[in-house]
Automatic annotation (TrEMBL):
UniProt record, GO biological process: 'de novo' pyrimidine nucleobase biosynthetic process; 'de novo' UMP biosynthetic process; amino acid metabolic process
Domain Aspartate/ornithine carbamoyltransferase carbamoyl-P binding, first and last residues per copy: 5-144
Subunit structure: Heterododecamer (2C3:3R2) of six catalytic PyrB chains organized as two trimers (C3), and six regulatory PyrI chains organized as three dimers (R2).
Residues that bind L-aspartate: K83, R165, R228
Species of the source: Clostridium bovifaecis
Catalytic reaction annotation: carbamoyl phosphate + L-aspartate = N-carbamoyl-L-aspartate + phosphate + H(+)
Molecular function GO labels: amino acid binding; aspartate carbamoyltransferase activity
Name of protein: Aspartate carbamoyltransferase
PANTHER family found in the cross-reference section: ASPARTATE CARBAMOYLTRANSFERASE, ORNITHINE CARBAMOYLTRANSFERASE, MITOCHONDRIAL
Length: 313
């Protein structure tokens, strides 16, 4: 049972628990009214120490659509953090007011630390260049609903695989399903971290290759996951400027792709998918953003224990 748990890493939930989250998400999509007051009287705190549009707003929209309420900050300068308050103290205090926390922080491991000091569930909404498990729930629900299942796919991950936390979480999550193959497409400087390669891919004997050109392999892909070069994690502007135009998905490249390949992107996009692609039926990134809200609704219900699955009653 997920009641009272935190979600810090995509591996925190078992495959069965994930399946129940997706089932509930789809029931919410089909019967939104049934859930519109289920969180009455509950409060979600959104603590965002780093900028966000989609993640924060989708958490807030999720809680409001469940009949709950939200409070929090999206600018650390307006909170006591700017006075030097420790993360542990902020979390303990918020635990006195709210029922559940969604937090984003620039430091890797911050959400984990927060969860050890918290009396209420903590959801990691991104910790530095590390993990982003609710984006992964979003990505998985999109794959499930559009491709039908999580197995036997060739998945291309393209762009900033070094700093892109959504990539790290998605590789972890998809590595638990049968017969997936990864094509990691990045410039030399933005390759996926060794710990993902060694501890996830190699350890589990998962087939993967690293390449630097998208057009060479696009015809093999079932799923193409594009990412933004993570400007905020670069130490110098010059490197960012040099690397940001590495990949631009355009009509010419898409002509080589399979007819049923899907394009995902956690968003925001900068220039890595040209706007002309948006009308291509294979472009699924805005659908993906919508699935993100529903999966967060399901997650909040589960962690608060307001929705208990039949098998646990
Ligand atoms: C991602 C993030 O914050 O890591 N965005 C998101 O949550 N949808 C990806 C990004 O910022 O590039």
């Amino acid at each position: 049972m997920l009641k009272g748990k935190s979600l810090i890493d995509p591996m925190d939930f078992t495959l069965e628990e994930l399946e129940l989250v997706f089932e509930l998400s789809n029931d919410i999509i089909e019967n939104p009214k049934k859930y519109s007051t289920i969180c009455n009287g509950k409060l979600l705190a959104t603590l965002f120490y780093e900028p966000s549009t989609r993640t924060r707003l989708s958490f807030e929209a999720a809680m409001l659509r469940l009949g709950g309420e939200v409070l929090g900050f999206s600018d650390v300068n307006s909170s006591s953090v700017s006075k030097g308050e420790s993360l542990a103290d902020t979390i303990r205090t918020v635990g006195c007011y709210a029922d559940i926390i969604a937090m984003r922080h620039p430091k890797e491991g911050a959400a984990k630390v927060a969860s050890t000091h918290s009396s209420i569930p903590v959801i990691n909404a991104g910790d530095g260049g590390h993990q982003h498990p609710t984006q992964t729930l979003t990505d998985l629900l999109t794959i499930k609903n559009i491709k039908g299942n999580f197995s036997n796919h060739t998945i291309g991950l393209c762009g900033d695989l070094k700093f892109g936390r959504t990539v790290h979480s998605l590789v972890k999550a998809l590595s638990r399903y049968e017969n997936n193959r990864f094509i990691l497409i990045s410039p030399e400087e933005l390759k996926i971290p060794d710990y993902i390669k060694q501890e996830i891919l190699e350890k589990n004997n998962i087939e993967f290759i690293e390449v630097d050109r998208l057009e060479k392999i696009i015809d093999e892909l079932d799923i193409l996951y594009m990412t933004r070069v993570q400007k905020e994690r670069f130490f110098n502007e010059e490197d960012y400027v040099r690397l940001k135009g590495s990949y631009i998905l355009n009509e010419e490249k898409m002509r080589k792709a399979k007819q049923d390949m899907i394009i995902l992107h956690p968003l925001p996009r900068v220039n890595e998918i040209s706007n002309e692609i948006d009308k291509d039926p294979r472009a699924c990134y805005f659908k993906q953003a919508r699935f993100g809200m529903f999966v967060r609704m399901a997650l909040i219900c589960k962690l608060l224990g307001v929705w208990v699955d039949v098998e646990y009653r």
